[in-house]
Design brief:
220 residues, alpha+beta, 3-stranded mixed sheet, 4-stranded mixed sheet, 30% helix, 29% strand
């Protein structure tokens, strides 16, 4: 709804950014990291997404998990879980981009043997996104929405490495939010943070959408 003044006729992932749909930049990032199989979780405007992207993006094979009804971000991941072939899934939000070396995040995930790794980035003011609490060992211990704390802090960059079994354990009985309901339940030692200094941008507001155009034009 917030982005509607800028993009009124298509789902947010198809918003034009630096000459191509926003989701195409995410697919290019995945392709560059060696990913060859992608499952796209679609809901509103899913037909448009399929028509725009088809079955391949460069060397990447595209498959689709279409919600029959709104399931929330957690429910959408649970629905897609049977389509994941390997033991670990790399999950990206469809409305944000983080300039992170995905291979390095994967190496850190494997080195620690974590069930889940959450990519974090440091921002001057995390109040819009919510602050992520990480203990000295690197374990994620909490998510704090608008806690009043001032100064820089770590935020969720919307990039995750997750054991397939974690996704399969998401309740399927009702719609749920991955960010507000599922992730906090995993702050019991199952999640580790991986901090990147790469730039982060989302397209959730007209202002940040304009910033994304600048960043991704620079990324090429």
């Amino acid at each position: 709804m917030r982005l509607r003044p800028a993009v009124a006729d298509r789902p947010k992932v198809l918003a034009p950014v630096a000459g191509r749909p926003f989701v195409a930049h995410l697919l290019a990032q995945l392709e560059a990291a060696g990913v060859r199989d992608v499952v796209l979780c679609t809901g509103y405007g899913g037909d448009q997404v399929h028509a725009a992207l088809g079955e391949r993006h460069g060397a990447v094979t595209l498959r689709y998990s279409r919600e029959p009804a709104p399931l929330g971000t957690g429910g959408a991941l649970r629905l897609a879980a049977p389509l994941i072939a390997g033991p670990t899934a790399l999950v990206l939000n469809g409305d944000s981009f983080c300039d992170v070396e995905l291979r390095d995040a994967w190496a850190a995930h494997c080195a620690h043997g974590a069930e889940g790794t959450l990519v974090l980035t440091d921002v001057p003011d995390p109040s819009r996104y919510g602050r992520v609490e990480v203990d000295p060992s690197g374990a994620v211990r909490g998510f704090h929405e608008k806690d009043g704390a001032r100064g820089p802090g770590l935020i969720n960059a919307g990039v995750y490495l997750l054991a397939r079994d974690l996704l399969r354990a998401i309740p399927s009985s009702a719609p749920c939010s991955f960010e507000r309901e599922v992730l906090p339940a995993w702050c019991d030692g199952r999640l580790r943070g991986y901090v990147t200094r790469g730039r982060f941008v989302d397209i959730g507001t007209p202002e940040s959408y304009a910033s994304a155009t600048t960043l991704l034009a620079e990324e090429g």
